[in-house]
Queue: 2 jobs
Job 1
Amino acid sequence: MTRLLYEADPYLTKFDATVTKVQGEWVVLDRTAFFPGGGGQDHDTGWMSGLEVKVVRSQDGEVVHQVPGHALSAGDRVDCEVDWERRNDLMRAHTGEHLLFSILSRMSPELELVKIAITSPKKSLVVRGELSWPMMAQAQEQANEAIAAQLPVSDVWVSKNSEVLKDIRIKVDRIHGDKVRVVTIGDLDKAACAGVHIQNTRELKMLLVTKLTSARPVGDYEIEFETGRRAMQTALRLSSIGLQAAESVRAQPEHLLNALSNLKGELLVAQDAVRAYGRQALKRLEPEKVEGVRLYSGIFDGLDKKTLVDSINELIGADRTVAIMASVDERLTLFVATSKDLEIDSREVLNRGLKVVDGKGGGGKNFASGGASHPQRAKEALDAAKDGLRALLTAG
Ligand SMILES: [Zn+2]
């Protein structure tokens, strides 16, 4: 059995130990401060006698350390160091997760903690039950009050039959040994957990929820959060973005959500109108006669592509018909379609049009489309495609 130094002192970063076993890249020590991960918290990394400790795992009551390139054997003494920046970030977030979920479950007791994932790039918990941004705002306020109140975080081992376990947060199926460690945050929370924690909530500095999204299965939510300096930096960055967003839609920051919702409504109305006018314009299109073929062509600003494509497909339902249309938004999209009875290849016509505007496209013989980044050159592309069609029809 490895002596688990992190249990007695989660702040210990440097220690020496004796190698007890070696298996390939994996090294077992008589004692270790490397946390092998658990309770959703990722394992530590660090250095063993100057070599990188890449992965640490718990295996059959032992802690095994992956140290690529080592030449150690049983009995060797090693100097070890835990990557403290990483560990501190992880154990802070882990304690932050205790705090956040405890506050949430107090607000809404039916919430169930499904999954915890505390890694360097991402700290998240998946919760089953109804959650909302207003709830998150309230929970964050309480969490940050608890941080400001500098609540002590302590732990104590109790027997698995202890009365203490009756009213704490615990997942009974996760208890393996005879003893259970109870982690307490002030008078706010008691939970069974064998992980590593900070000693006082003030070490969190700040807790910020950065994302709330629906997760699978339906009814689950994933909450992402950050603590410490990263939380502060993210809060400042997002606050500045929010203020700029409010300014750009000429709303008071407090009214930004309403303003966006109004804008969305107005956009839908405008899109409907453009679609209706676009359909009318498409219906009124008169074909030109080119070498015995009916050619429909036009440039449509801001019309959604689906409406345009539907109309094109309708037009080429008639024999001896070609449609060359351009749709213009931030980009230029050119469509070429030919009725099935014609030998003309749409792709050839399209390429002649796109060539003059450095565009790219593809498709089938009867329907091809492509784009270019110069919306203002739509007429040029359209004319080139029409000239191309004329040339191909004459040659044929
Ligand atoms: Zn914990």
Job 2
Amino acid sequence: MGDTKGTCGVNAARLVERFCSLVAVDNPSYGERAMADAVSGMLRALGATVEEDGAAAIVGGSAGNLIARIPGEAGLPTVGFCAHLDSVAPAKGKRAVVFDDGTIRSAGDTVLGADDLSAVAALLEAVCVLREQGIAHRPIELIFTVCEEPYTKGSRALDVERLTAREIFVPDLTGAVGTAAIAAPTILALTVTVTGRASHAGFAPEAGIHAIAVAARALTRCTLGHVDEDTTVGFGIIHGGTASNAVPERCVLEGEIRGYDDARAWEECRRLQDIFEQECAAAGAAVTVAVEERTRAYTVGADSAIARRFADACAAIGVQPTQVRTFGGSDANTFAARGRDTLVIANAMSSVHSVEEFTTVDELARLCALLIELMR
Ligand SMILES: [Zn+2]
């Protein structure tokens, strides 16, 4: 079967059915057991070998990452694909509704879970089409991660050295099918703890060191939002104090720094740390700044081998390839940090992380056709 122009090789009805059946499975982060079992079952039915790693214990969830392998033509390099099994809340009791115009939405009270189940369904359908049409293809490695939504915890627990694929496509991006992200940011999570001294606010306020006031002085010195075109700083949570009649001993702020340039992100981090240290020292308070690197920035050459292969696959199905930058993290950050060639690609999902999330039958079919091309 040589003809895969357009989406004619794809059984759209079966793909939609597969997608809807996956949507019906509960898949909150840390609670992917039912989804991992459903996907493993489908993979084995397609002749894949499936292993589950030990990520469940590492992340504190109910399932590990799945690694499925489908043998291909000898002599061809293995191609990898990674999609995540979890969806953001509300991800329980999901039900897909297919409308006459071809859009697919949730019943309205949950997310749809096209992020990232459209990718999971399209990957499974692509393998199914290769098998039933006897299309020659590369050896395929499918990685299905858990806990992607909480800052790629699942993939960070994956032993990437177990993977054979040097080239890994990550369908986990909004935008028209054919879109690929060639840059993704470093994300640093910050927890700043200011410790002053508790005292009665009426009897002996002078004996206290007001942690909230000290934190506020520091915070007003921080530049928030875009600190340059490619870097943002934000604090989203602040809590402190225990009683309205006490000088608060502690104030904790949680925030993040995001930037396309890893060194710049860390520079901003040090700048914030300096500000808090100066204000705390001036007031006699103590401060700790805990920083966790959640993802590390990477770029992909616009004309690199993986970008070219993606563009060729788009051309083969008559889709315009488009390169963008994404300001979100994904499992691709994990693979890039471990030296793999990786590309995040659009996977037929829109208005993600909301109950308005939707996909369409046409985009799902195009995604599947594109994945088949990348597997050939
Ligand atoms: Zn996603």
